[in-house]
Specification:
four-stranded parallel β-sheet, alpha/beta, 24% strand, Rossmann fold, single chain
């Protein structure tokens, strides 16, 4: 699997909402990129997942620019406004809804079983906004990866939830090693991570 963003940008060249971005995600390692504008991480995520066309540049999956295939294969995870569960919705309700969208059983037993597997069953009645950051991201990545046809995940701005960057980076690595590569797109708070982490090269 190879997901490539080649020179994608949004807005006027002199005043871009998303400055030029070049990213390559493969099966070998997660990729992490920091984008330096307020809307940049969301815009870049939408483009990477085929939900938005860039003003410049291209997106290719395994060498193809087929937008429909890109949308089927790449899932957005915790992208603000677009794919972010409301903070007040109970954890169990989020799981049931995601299992339904994935075409899987979503009854109480299925929901409880998944939460048990992740070690967070005691959070089932709590608002998802109260979940510790690492548990939240592990849950949302797991649910997105379970959707039929999904081959890659785009995780947006995990740093906004707080917690240690090592935790979400470890999650990105584990999902990638399990066969679903993760592209992390965030703000410049990720710069220290990029300097120290063993991740695929990405330029912004």
């Amino acid at each position: 699997m190879r997901l490539e963003l080649d020179g994608v940008a949004v807005g006027e060249a002199a005043t871009p909402a998303l400055p030029r971005l070049d990213v390559v995600l493969t099966d070998g390692a997660p990729a992490v990129v920091a984008v330096g504008t307020e809307r940049g991480p969301v815009l870049a995520s939408l483009i990477a997942a085929g939900r938005m066309r860039p003003d410049r540049g291209s997106v290719r999956l395994d060498g193809s620019a087929d937008e429909e295939a890109l949308r089927r294969a790449v899932a957005l995870v915790d992208t603000p406004v677009v794919a972010e569960p409301p903070a007040t919705v109970r954890v169990a309700a989020v799981v049931a809804e995601e299992l339904h969208f994935a075409g899987l059983r979503n009854g109480r037993r299925a929901v409880t079983g998944l939460l048990d597997d992740l070690g967070i069953a005691h959070w089932h009645r709590a608002p998802i906004g109260d979940l510790p950051p690492a548990d939240r991201l592990r849950l949302l990545l797991t649910l997105a990866a379970a959707r039929p046809g999904v081959r890659a995940l785009v995780l947006t701005s995990p740093e906004r939830h707080g917690g240690a960057s090592a935790e979400w980076l470890a999650l990105a690595r584990s999902f990638t090693l399990a066969g679903t590569p993760v592209l992390v797109i965030g703000g410049h708070a990720l710069d220290p991570v990029l300097r120290t982490a063993d991740v695929a090269p990405a330029l912004a």
